[in-house]
Write a structure and sequence with these properties.
By secondary structure, the protein is an alpha+beta fold. The protein is built from six helices and eight strands, in the order ααβαββββαββαβα. This is Molybdopterin cofactor sulfurase.
């Protein structure tokens, strides 16, 4: 019998407390997507509302040559602005949207490229210098697609805080020290609302 997610607490307990995760939710034979995972109609994807953003892919092969520093600078600039970049020589998912300054920006697929997003922990470690990108992937009725996301995260007991050398340079810590598992409990314990989960880690 499929579990019943009739409130936020029951969904949180199943996904986070009991350790089933999103995959366990899918495998539980539920007949509809839990309400917490559904965007309000006004925020749902509409390709016509997305601004197209042309971004040149970064060639990682040049890291081993005389253009090493320029490649590094390209990655840094992308992480500081969009929180997103593409590197060539890999497969790329199609129809990706990134959120930038309250507006969805369409990222056209680059053949042979790999999509890399900056996540919340890197934004905290960098004291806000690198931007954690909010993104979404559109589905269509004309194409099939396979996405294989790989998330790199600390252990649950790991303490997370801006790096001391970054705080010294900035003159202020924009995020407090916290335990990674506490952050994830906050993240999964609330309905998705953009990047508001980062507010849990802010110092004010």
């Amino acid at each position: 019998m499929a579990p019943c997610f009739d409130n936020q607490s029951s969904l949180f307990n199943f996904v986070v407390r009991d350790g089933n995760g999103v995959k366990g939710t899918v495998d539980s034979s539920i007949s509809k997507v839990p309400w917490a995972y559904i965007q309000p109609p006004a925020e749902q994807i509409n390709k016509n509302n997305a601004t197209k953003c042309e971004i040149l892919p970064i060639d990682l092969l040049s890291l081993d040559g005389p253009d090493h520093d320029e490649v590094v600078n390209q990655i840094v600039r992308a992480a500081e602005t969009l929180g997103f970049f593409q590197v060539i020589n890999r497969g790329v998912p199609e129809d990706v949207d990134m959120e930038k300054k309250g507006e969805w920006v369409e990222i056209p697929p680059v053949p042979g490229a790999l999509v890399i997003n900056v996540g919340d922990m890197l934004q905290i470690w960098s004291n806000g210098r690198y931007k954690s990108a909010e993104y979404r992937v559109r589905t269509t009725s004309t194409k099939s697609r396979v996405s294989i996301p790989i998330f790199v995260s600390p252990q649950g007991t790991q303490k997370i805080a801006p790096l001391p050398q970054v705080v010294e340079k900035d003159g202020v810590a924009r995020y407090r020290e916290l335990v990674f598992s506490d952050y994830m409990n906050c993240f999964f314990g609330n309905a998705h609302d953009g990047k508001k989960s980062l507010g849990f880690a802010k110092t004010n």
